[in-house]
Amino acid sequence: MRVNPKKFEINNLIYIIRSAKEEDAQNLSEVRVQIDGETENMDREKGEAYIDESGFKQIIRSDTERKNNLFLVAEANDRIVGFSRCEGTQLKRMSHKVEFGVCVLKEFWGHSIGKKLLEESIHWADSNGIKKISLSVLETNSKAVKLYQRYGFEVEGILKKDKILSDGNYYNTFLMGRFNV
């Protein structure tokens, strides 16, 4: 599905949140690899589960065609600096919900890009009959957990010792959900 682009100016940065286009595919492939290497908050390490340009084109095409999928990008200075996806399913019993994920290049943290991607995703979901948004977040990512809670997400479960980080320790993952009645 597609949404109308929105422009934001936060902390002297002007950026646009818009639906992903097939022309974004190569840039998205590069940005995803970079983000994965900048933080341990993501599931992947740099280069793992690599998606090339054609893979992203296929994802964008599919997300555009499906009514319960949404692929957003944040664009600043003519480049993609972050993105988010809401992915639903065609299964009738689970068609009321989507899974949300977001990532932003580290040099653009502090400009509310993740927050705006979340807000736009929630608005889209609420406007299109999606009743539940689910996500997973590493327990150590307290800033993200607090943001999600401010938007009505609750911890629904904990995957104990779910991820091993570079310090050799295991960490829990919070499963969070927001239900719109």
UniProtKB/TrEMBL annotation:
SUPFAM superfamilies: Acyl-CoA N-acyltransferases (Nat). Residues 15-177 form the N-acetyltransferase domain. One of its GO terms (molecular function) is acyltransferase activity, transferring groups other than amino-acyl groups. Pfam families: Acetyltransf_1 (PF00583). CDD domains: NAT_SF. InterPro entries: Acyl_CoA_acyltransferase (IPR016181), GNAT_dom (IPR000182). Gene3D superfamilies: 3.40.630.30. PANTHER family: GNAT-FAMILY ACETYLTRANSFERASE (PTHR43415:SF3), SPERMIDINE N(1)-ACETYLTRANSFERASE (PTHR43415). This is GNAT family N-acetyltransferase.
